[in-house]
Single-stranded DNA-bindig protein WHY2, mitochondrial-like
Amino acid sequence: SFSVKGTSADYVYAPFRIYKGRAALSLSPVLPTFTKLESGGLVVGRSGVVMLKFTPAIGERKYDWEKRQVFALSATEVGSLISLGPNDSCEFFHDPSMQSSNAGQVRKSLSIKSHADGSGYMVSLTVVNNLLKTKENFIVPVTAAEFAVMKTACSFALPHIMGWDRLMSNMPTGVGVGRQQSKVVPQLLDEWDR
Amino acid sequence: SFSVKGTSADYVYAPFRIYKGRAALSLSPVLPTFTKLESGGLVVGRSGVVMLKFTPAIGERKYDWEKRQVFALSATEVGSLISLGPNDSCEFFHDPSMQSSNAGQVRKSLSIKSHADGSGYMVSLTVVNNLLKTKENFIVPVTAAEFAVMKTACSFALPHIMGWDRLMSNMPTGVGVGRQQSKVVPQLLDEWDR
Amino acid sequence: SFSVKGTSADYVYAPFRIYKGRAALSLSPVLPTFTKLESGGLVVGRSGVVMLKFTPAIGERKYDWEKRQVFALSATEVGSLISLGPNDSCEFFHDPSMQSSNAGQVRKSLSIKSHADGSGYMVSLTVVNNLLKTKENFIVPVTAAEFAVMKTACSFALPHIMGWDRLMSNMPTGVGVGRQQSKVVPQLLDEWDR
Amino acid sequence: SFSVKGTSADYVYAPFRIYKGRAALSLSPVLPTFTKLESGGLVVGRSGVVMLKFTPAIGERKYDWEKRQVFALSATEVGSLISLGPNDSCEFFHDPSMQSSNAGQVRKSLSIKSHADGSGYMVSLTVVNNLLKTKENFIVPVTAAEFAVMKTACSFALPHIMGWDRLMSNMPTGVGVGRQQSKVVPQLLDEWDR
C-alpha cells in the first residue's frame, strides 16, 4: 500500500491555496469511501470529490476562517473544469439539502469565467440561504498559471476520487491465467474473450 | 505492492456510471492477466480492456440489469477514444464468437458520434444476434464534461491495461549496474549501450 | 510506501540534464516536507519545488560546478511552465533573501522565451548580487523535444511537489462508511452529502 | 515498493505490439539502473529508454524473430515522439558503436512520417551495416489510434525511464522539518528557503 512507513498519520493536509485580496480559495481532493461486500469485494460507497473552500478576507493577508464556505466538485464537474479552454466558462449549482425537508432553502452556485484576454479566470461562489436570510459572495481571480496547477492537480486526482486507483492496486497478486479466470463473471467472458 | 493493508478484498467495484433516460453506460478497467515463465519472468496472458456496459431503462431511474450488454475496448480502441477531438467520431466492430463455429452470428458495433455543436457525444451500442434473431440498441448521450472524465480515466487506465505499470513496478530491487547487466539480453546491449 | 526494498538509500539523484555550449541546465523535483500534527495528521511544512540548476561551461563539455546557480520553481511557476505554448514566453523573479535584512540585495530572474519559429526555447537565468557586486548570466537553448521532456516530467512531478500524492496514499486502510464519517469535519458534511 | 507480493518475478514482458503486413513493431520501456553512492544515495547509472523492436514478416502473420533490429529511444527522443502533432514528422540517427573502433560502421535511422491526411504515421527503421555490407529496412504503418497508445504509454513511461518515480518514492519516511533540513545541501537552502 501507499501508506507511510513509520508514521501513523491518518490525514494529510496539502491543499492548493490561492490567496487573493478579497478571498482565499483552496482545493483538496477527498477520496471515496469503500464498503466491503459479503463476496469479499469492495464497492465505492460515497464518491470522492475535489473540495473547494472559499474564505473571505478581513484585512491585508487576513482571512476569516469561521466564514468559510465549501463546494464539492463531483467527478463530472472536475471533468468540466479540466476540459475548460482559455476562453471557456462554466457554472455549477448545488443544493446541499437536496432530498431533505430543507430542499431549495440553500443554493450554492460556483462560476468559473475566463477573462476576455485569456489571462486567467474569475472563480466565484454564491451561497443564498433562505433560512438565515443571507447571501454570501466570494470572488477569487485565478491566473492562467494557477489554473494550470488546478487542472493538472485535478487531472491527477480524478482517477483517485473515482476509485480507479484502487481498481488498479487491488489486482490479484497471484499469477497465472487459471486463477484469474475463476473470478471472472461468466457472462463477461464471451465479450472479453473475443 | 498496491494492495490494501488490513483488507482481503479481491475486487474493487468503482465503475464510472452515466445514467440517462433511455439507457445507462458504465466504464471500468479490467487489468491484464500474467503468466509466469520458467525463466521467472511474467508475460501478459490476456490483455486488459476498458469494459463498457450498457443497460436499458425500464422506467424513471430504473434499469433492467438482466438485459445488460458489454463491449470491451482494447488498448488501441482506448487510444481512439482518448484522441477523439470535439468534432470527431469513431466506430468499432466486435464479433464475440470470432474464431469459433459461431463466428459472424453475433455482431456488436459501438459508435461514438460528436454532436454538431461540440457539446458532447452520442454513444450507442448495437448488438445483432442471428442465433436468437434479436437486435438490441442502446443510446446514451454523453456531455462534454462526462466525456472529459471518460478520456482522463481511460488515459490513466491505458498503461495499466497494457501491463506497463507492472513493467515499472517489478524493477529489480538490487542496486548497481553489474547486477542489472547480467540480465540484459546480450543482443540488446549494442543498441542500449550507445 | 514507495521505498525500495532491500536498500537503505536516502536520496535518489536523477536530474534531467541539458548540456549546451555555454551552460548546462538540470531539473529535479524536491518533495515537500510534512509536519505531524497533534491530531495525528500530517500537514505540508515546506512546499516542494522543481529545482533548476545552471552551470557555466569552461571548455568543451567542461562545466564549473562551483559556479552553479539554482532557481526553485514553485507549484504555480511549474503551472506556468507546463502551460507554455510553442510561441509563449514567461519570466519569474525571485529574491532569495526576501523577508531578511538582505532583502533586495540579490535578484534572480528566470526567462523562458520561445524561438520565433517554434523550434524551442531560450532558457536564461540572471543573478544580480549587489552585496558581491556581481552579475551572472546563464543561457541554455532548449529544443522542442527537450522542452517536451521538461513539461511531461514537471506535470508528473507537480502533484508530488504539492503533496497530493500523499493525500492519495494515506487513505484510511479501514473499510466502511461508518469509520470514515467519524473523521469528517462536521461542517463539511452538508456539502459533501449533497 | 511496487513489487508483486507472492511472486518472485524478475521481469515483466508487456510490450505494445503492432503487427502489420511487412513488419511488426513492439515498444517497451526499459528502466534506468541505479548505483549506490557511499553517502547512501542512489544515482542513475545507465539511463532508461523506450525500446523499439522491428521484426520482418516472412509470410502471413509470420515474423522472423532472428532478424529483429532494435532502436532505443532516449528520454529526449521520447519527448519528440510524444509532442509530435498529427502532421509532424521526425527522424533520429544512432550509431550503436559510437566511441568504439567501429564507430560509423553501423548506422541506424528511425523515421516517423505523418500521412498527408493525418490518419496516422509511417514508422520505419533503416540499418546500414558497412562491416557486413548489409542494409535492412523495416516499414510499419501506424494508425492514429495506435499512435495515441504509443504517445500515452510513452508519456506514462517517461518519468520512469528518467528515474523520477524513484525521486518520488524514496521520500524520507520520517516526519518533520528538522530531519529533512539536515540532509539538504547547504548551498541550496538560500534559494529553497525563499
In short: Residues 1-8, 171-190 of chain A have pLDDT under 50 and may be disordered. The radius of gyration of chain A is 21 Å. Residues 32 and 163 of chain A are 6 Å apart (CA to CA).
